[in-house]
Specification:
The chain is an alpha/beta fold and about 400 residues long. The protein has helices spanning about 5-15, 70-80, 95-105, 130-140, 150-155, 175-180, 205-210, 225-240, 250, 255-265, 280, 285-295, 335-350, 350-355, 375-400, and strands at about 55-65, 80-85, 110-115, 145-150, 185-190, 245, 270-275, 300, 305-310, 320-325. It has one domain: TIM Barrel (Alpha-Beta Barrel), CATH 3.20.20. The protein has a 10-stranded mixed sheet with strand order 8-7-6-5-4-3-2-1-9-10. The two termini are about 40 Å apart.
Length: about 400
């Protein structure tokens, strides 16, 4: 598949200049999706459907390889997830993967939304912003539904002098503006958990996780500090009020609910998703968390950070590889996905006054348990389904001039 001349030119400029993207090693969702051949791997066996009383669920934060949609959607089906948003949609500079993502949109109409990724290796090339904006526009015209920005912006890519490029760097302004003009949201991952910026010692509460992935640690003072990164993000949001930003991982500050409330109050164009942060959100007083969810019930989206890709197994056959919010002590199996989703549902639906604490959905993140928040039915409906549908899927169908092909019971 041919890709826009602007994107092609950017890639060429980057190659001539010898620019190399600095990725935080070990951050799977930061990497550009790999291109792999179609897989014969069969989807998991059927499992009981989600309870009838639960709203149809939209998971707004998944990372699906271009050849792993059948497996990912089978896992979604068995856990009552009606639609998924794949934040790892690649770009035209990898045309085979890009074509497969487009094919998935058509193969599972109404069930899949795919977000565009930038060509990060070209970030220092001339006209990067306008050309990436053109690439985004082309992708949206063909069926893409949004843009994903990983934490590599702020913590990875560097300018020609070797300095980390700030989240609010002006070179990205044409991209944010174009997303606003197109009416597509920008899901952005800025900074990381508080513990990731603290010394990597046994006293660090995320020591087990960081020991397994030491490149996730940003304790080294060469990296920008967490508060500075979040401030950069806030300035960028303020500068683009006509663009919708989904601040993934609960604005990447679930340790501080007051600050999350400040962000949502200050910036009406900002939303947050829950992905991979139930463990942190659930450490707070359930009444305070519930009050925040009720106050901003139209601004909070359900997401898990589930990743699905295919890799060669010991016998040479392709097998499904899973990422469930973080690393796992042992390779996750399909049945582990069921427990992963069940823990999310339990946190949102159960009453801590009755059940007490429940298990952490991502155990490697820490040894503590979490306290469920027992959301009212209207808030659950908004978080599970309505907010994502309003921001992502309804505009997608409107752009195409077609009706939603998926029946959604209410």
């Amino acid at each position: 598949m041919a890709y826009p001349r602007a994107v092609q030119g950017l890639v060429g400029l980057a190659s001539v200049a010898g620019l190399v993207l600095f990725f935080a090693a070990g951050c799977r969702q930061c990497a550009e999706p790999a291109v792999a051949p179609p897989s014969p791997v069969a989807p998991p066996a059927e499992a009981p459907a989600a309870p009838v009383a639960r709203a149809p669920i939209i998971d707004v934060h998944t990372h699906i390889a271009s050849d792993a949609y059948p497996q990912a959607l089978a896992l979604a089906d068995r856990n009552g997830v009606q639609r998924i948003v794949n934040l790892s949609g690649g770009h035209q500079a990898r045309p085979e993967g890009f074509a497969r993502h487009l094919a998935a949109i058509g193969a599972w109409p109404g069930r899949v939304a795919v977000f565009y990724n930038l060509v990060w290796r070209a970030v220092n090339a001339a006209e990067f912003g306008p050309r990436m904006a053109e690439g985004l526009e082309d992708a949206v015209r063909q069926g893409y539904a949004g843009l994903k920005i990983p934490k590599v912006l702020g913590l990875g890519v560097v300018d020609l002098d070797g300095h980390f490029i700030a989240v609010d760097d002006a070179r990205f302004d044409p991209i944010w503006r174009k997303a606003g003009e197109l009416g597509v949201p920008v899901s952005i991952h800025t900074s990381d958990p508080k513990a990731f910026f603290e010394p990597l010692t046994p006293e660090n509460e995320r020591y087990e996780e960081l020991s397994a992935a030491p490149d996730w640690s940003f304790a080294d003072p060469k990296y920008p500090r967490r508060a500075a990164l979040l401030a950069q993000r806030d300035r960028m949001i303020a500068r683009h009020p006509d663009t919708t930003f989904i601040l993934v991982h609960f604005a990447n500050n679930p340790e501080d609910l007051d600050d999350v409330e400040r962000v949502l109050t200050t910036y009406p164009n900002a939303l947050v998703d829950l992905s991979a942060r139930i463990g942190e959100i659930g450490r707070h007083d359930p009444a305070k968390v519930r009050a925040l969810f009720v106050k901003f019930k139209d601004r909070i989206l359900f997401g898990t950070d589930m990743g699905v890709h295919l890799e060669a197994g010991p016998d040479g056959q392709e097998v499904m590889a899973l990422f469930l919010g973080s690393l796992s002590r042992t390779p996750p199996q399909p049945e582990d996905v069921d427990g992963f989703f069940a823990a999310h549902f339990a946190f949102l639906e159960q009453d801590s006054a009755k059940v007490g604490e429940i298990p952490h959905p991502v155990p490697i993140q820490g040894p503590w348990k979490v306290r469920p928040i027992h959301l009212p039915p209207d808030v659950l409906q908004a978080v599970y389904h309505d907010n994502a549908y309003r921001v992502i899927f309804a505009p997608m169908f409107k752009r195409r001039g077609e009706a939603d092909p998926v029946a959604t019971p209410r």
